[in-house]
Amino acid sequence: MKLLVCIKQVPDLESRFKPNAEGVWYNETDLAWRMNEYDEYAVEQAVQLREKLGEGTELTVLSIGSDRVVEAIKKALAMGADNAAHIQDPAAASKDPWQIASIIATYAKDKAFDIIFTGMQSQDRGSAQVGVTVAEQLGIACTTTIVGFEYDSGNIRAKRELEGGIKGIVKMKTPALVTCQMGLNVPRYPTLPNIMKAKKKEIAVIPVADLLKEEALATTASFHPPAKKGGGIVLEGDVGVLVDQLIAILKDKTAVLR
Amino acid sequence: MFLDLTEEQKLIQDTARDFAKAELEPVAAALDQSDDRSPLLANLKKLSELGFMGLNVRGEYGGSEAGVISFSLAITEIARACASTAVTLSVSNMVAEVIQAVGSEEQRKAYIPKICSGEYPAGGFALTETCAGSDPAGMCTQAVDDGDCWVLNGTKIFITSAPYAGVFVVWAVTDKTAPKGKGISCFLVEGGTPGLVIGKEEKKMGQHASATNEVIFDSCRIPKSALMGKLNDGFRIAAGELAGGRIGIGSLGLGVGLAAIDYATRYVTERVQFGQKISNFQAIQWMIADTYTELEAARLLLMSAAYRKEAGKTFAKEASMAKMYATEAGNQACYKAIQMLGGYGYTRDFPVERYARDARITAIYEGTNEIQRMIISREILRNLS
What we know:
The complex is a heterodimer.
Chain A: E1 2-7, E2 9-11, E3 33-35, H1 37-53, E4 58-65, H2 70-79, E5 83-88, H3 97-108, E6 115-119, H4 130-138, E7 141-152, E8 155-161, E9 167-173, E10 176-180, H5 192-197, E11 203-207, H6 239-253
Parallel strand pairs in A: 1-4, 1-6, 4-5, 5-11, 6-10, 7-10
Antiparallel strand pairs in A: 2-3, 7-8, 8-9
Helix pairs in contact in A: 3-4
Chain B: H1 7-33, H2 38-50, H3 67-81, H4 83-102, H5 105-117, E1 122-126, E2 142-145, E3 149-160, E4 165-173, E5 184-190, E6 196-201, E7 212-223, E8 227-228, H6 234-268, E9 272-273, E10 276-277, H7 282-310, H8 316-341, H9 352-360, H10 369-382
């Protein structure tokens, strides 16, 4: 059985983001990087399945990006993936979700993966398109935002969480792709011996040009911080007058008072 | 020259930071104020399962083989959240390393895996005595050959983790007639051995969750096989291994200092006086600039000492420099942080008060900073005479 988990390295969200020189993405210098949180749930679920199925199952981790993404790849290897594919692309951020998905689909096409795990979205771009588009391009089943996962001899039973806490159960036959949501599991910390042993696991380096056949379908026109809001209204004067003014504003501008 | 960490070192740093933030930080303030050590012991167990108890220990003994730089990074990250956890970790790692460096194959196999796996909550390092603090060669504890065993008599003080240490490295005089420092030997004594009595616990200024006790040897009989290394060669072992421990304590001082200044720097960007954030005032800005510069210098000294040890070069002088500088910078950072918080900094509603108490001992234990200066100057002057 062959499993694939796709991960993205994203900036720590506590970073201060500034637009880059072209104004279409953030400036990547001096940021701290880590594995996309939703991808950690995907890795954990894939590793749990890998451990349950034991020998004869192979879990590959894939990431697209510059050399810095190798740290995220090594974390997934330390968590329990068997080997890795690093799609080397210093300009991954300039590609749209369609292109990213097509790179993954082209890589996966002839490798007969039974299950592909992805995060439900990345924390930086947040398109939530890559996973489903990979499944579409490969022509396999797909379900999204899963919070529960069971597998038994070719059948997946996934639990989804819908708006308002309503749960849904989806059954699929492999090959299939799932996108993983918070609540699915608690990702393990990689142990230190496993971090050191991950050095010996194979990371195949593939230039993105070998896999990218598609043009972008959507381009980001602008990346900018939100416009600064005004400073609000300051009311001054006698309390009795202030109350009347406030009530008038609440009636006029809000639905609090009618 | 390459000053960046390897991917493995970064991952270990991230793992330590994530664990510390999630598991240690939420309980650190309560551990400081309570006598209940169960959260500390539970976290030590989790840390051992992740491989933090034998960072620089070989895999065959259950260690992580992560190296000295990773050890320093890990202690700093743990100390940013909880200094008591960090010191327990630092001493236990040192004990595992001493046994690996000087112990026989039997001794290594008997004890190191139990420290690394967490079967022993901690390891103990029993050197100091009332009359032998900075001058450990003046110790009085004796080990007498009684045919089929050694008999230990004497009292050690200030022993970290004593109530829950599974094994102690113990130094004792084995040849009273030898010149000072030449007749001392090193032994491994298991916790719970009859005659090994855990004495009174010190009431300390800080690092409350880490127990510090008297350890009394009252005709404590240990097997002949408990001798570690060569007879009468123990003092050299102590001197050598303490240098490695100093990298741990320097890293701890750095971590506490970073925690303090990080907290205070966030605080001054919110605190308003005279109609503006106090971070607008140059007096505050200079405290920020000075403190981060000192801590960065400390970090580089620690990395240099750790690199030298990892590369198999001499590192005693560099470890002393790093320990002395980092613990003083860490203490300064805590006091500056209190100043930046003003009256609030002096209260227990804010964590910098605890950081300052926790940091104070780092300039004292594992060799006072005065002893570090003696070591540094001795190494420098030796080359001129």
